[in-house]
Amino acid sequence: MKHLFRARDERGATSVEYGLMVACIAIAIIGGVTIFGLGVNGLFASIPPNL
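The structure assignment produced for this chain is given below.
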């Protein structure tokens, strides 16, 4: 009887899904900060010659 209920237990699958979501969000944040950082760096690099 325990084997019937064991197939319906989706706690592990939910944990894996949350882990994948967190990983995707982390990758998006790291990519965004990298791109934004390069843009800001270029902006500040162009200021001194104009002064």
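Interim note for the steering committee: The CA atoms of residues 30 and 36 lie 10 Å apart. The mean pLDDT is 82.
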